Amino acid sequence: MTDTDEWVQQIPLQALPEQVATTIADLAFAGRYIPAGPNEEPIAGDFYDLLRLDDDLVAVVVGDVAGHGETALARMRQLRAATRAYAIQGGGAGSVIARLDRFCARLDAEAIATIWYGEYRPSSGTLTYASAGHPPPVLTSHGGRTRLLHEAVAPPLGVDASERGVQEHSEVLPVGAVLVAYSDGLVERRGTDVDRQLALLREVVDEACDPTTGEPAQETAARILDTLVPDPDLAEDDVCLLVIRREPRPA
Fold first, then answer.
1. Domain count, the chain
2. Domain with 115 in it: what CATH number?
3. Overall pTM surpassing 0.85 (yes/no)
């Protein structure tokens, strides 16, 4: 059994666990999922996923299918399965997004979704990513101020993202770098300016990711949620959060 097989079994397509912590290559991951309101089971379309495609390539995904209920949950499962399939086929981040756009357009006219997809190479520390309508992750490294990655140029999946062009971007993640990807439920609030919420997220990540402490990804995820979603039962939308930290590689 490969590392990829083991990971796929840990995060089955049938359900998204509320909390996951793992390490793949030199990346430590902490995934959190909070359903909106006092629901015992996730019934919406937010998701994250991780895939080790080969010895020097790891795929990272955060997505959000529009809507709630069983229909949104079913569409989310289809989108996750398609993303895994296209990632394994290869072609790069932009190609994966373009193919997912065509998949969603043919699947269902109502199956609109946003997605951020990245591919990371441990040998170089390079992250190449593309996005379709999804909020930009935040990144901090070497104690610098946390910043937003490039915003999506392509619209959400299912509305001709492939026709308007999908842009790829690259970042080199230094050792100790922390990347925070999320769904819009983390920062969007009724009556609250989203830019203020993004600024708050960046402040929290700045404080949590002091390079002198080397805080684990799980603790950073907890800090973010405690600040931006202090009462999960009152959440207006589902929240999906993925914190990624590049760790030193063993000698």
1. 1
2. 3.60.40.10
3. yes
